[in-house]
Amino acid sequence: MKKFCRYISDYMGVLVLVVAVFAFLFPEALRGVRPTVINYLLGLVMFGMGLTLNLQDFKIVFSRPKDVIIGCLAQFTIMPLMAWLLARLFQLDEALALGVVLVGCCPGGTASNVITYLAKGDLALSVGMTGVSTLLAPFMTPLLTWALAGKSVDVDVASMFLSILWVVILPIVVGLTVKWLWPRFTEQATDYLPAFSSIAIAMIVAIIISANADKLMTGGWLIMIVVMLHNLSGLGLGYLVGLLLGLSAPKQRAISIEVGMQNSGLASSLATMHFAAYPLATIPGALFSVWHNISGALVAYLYRKNSLLSTSNNNTSNK
Question: Residue 175: which of 44, 56, 266 has the closest Cα?
Fold first, then answer.
């Protein structure tokens, strides 16, 4: 069973892609599912994140605050501004532009830690950035969304703040509490959590795509291009920030992946809860969830390959 769960988590990108294609081709299979289910699924993913976190994971915030601050500043500037720029450049309508901005204003995604590990990046920095950006999300996400999309769409900052506390922060706190009270149970469950989170994220994507399959038929290619460019610009500019500041190669990879991979499930959840008048606003988050798992796997391969080549060259020069 553990081997099967590891297989699911290792091939999360493939799973999400297959489920997304199925939902697009057979939308009637999931159209009876209420959109509010997305919030519960995301809450379960965040609960699983809480179970895997350790208070020691936040030690990096105090031992290496400079690295975390650089990463989080990059996170909450590059992705929101690129989202706004791409929405303007491609002249997206209000709903799709809002959805892209929501993705850009969200914290780092949980899958980024796995991708950083596979890419031989600084895993401690990645976990620290995910934790800190998630804790900052109740403040930063509503304020940034209001600043970048508030002129065209009514953004209720206070309501979004409470929603993120409810859907993201509370499940993480509950997960940490469960881990503290029942450490043995949590240790046994840890092997299954990545697979569980992968399935939950795939279900979120399927629900959103099935509900909007008809609209994707007409303009899906355009928003897919925007989503891909948004993700790739985050990966590229995140890496560039680390390079220009003279950070080590593992730190450069961690910041690149952390900036480029967003908690797009949260973006879709917020769009469902607060922007029901703009149903297309859920689509960018769903497509981002599909694409960033594919690009993340490719980037991890390239970074890992480059790391191995660098190690081999160093060993050769030392001889």
Answer: 44
Dump the DSSP string for 61-77: HHHSHHHHHHHHHHHHH
Distance CA 40, CA 37 (A): 5
The CB-side HSE value for 229 (13 A sphere, CA atoms) comes to 16
pTM, two decimal places: 0.87
For residue 206, the surrounding DSSP H or E stretch is helix 193-211
| Contact indicator for 127, 107 with CB cutoff of 8 Å | no
**pLDDT score for 311:** 57
Nearest by Cα to 227 from 24, 113, 83: 83
Q: How far is CA 59 from CA 48, 63, 66, 68, 135, in A?
A: 20, 6, 13, 11, 15
246-262 per-position pLDDT tens digit? 999 999 999 999 999 99
Residue type, 179: K
Q: How far apart are CA 10 and CA 121, in angstroms?
A: 17
Q: Do 202 and 38 meet the contact criterion of CB atoms below 8 Å apart?
A: no
6-47 pLDDT per residue, tens: 788 777 778 888 998 999 899 888 877 887 888 898 888 888
CA dist., res. 168 & res. 89, Å (int) = 32
At 88-120, the pLDDT tens digits run: 999 999 999 999 999 999 998 878 888 888 888
| Token output for 130 | 């995910």
The contacts of residue 52 (CB under 8 Å, 6+ apart) are: 175, 190, 193
Q: What SS3 class is residue 291?
A: helix
CA distance 72 to 4: 35
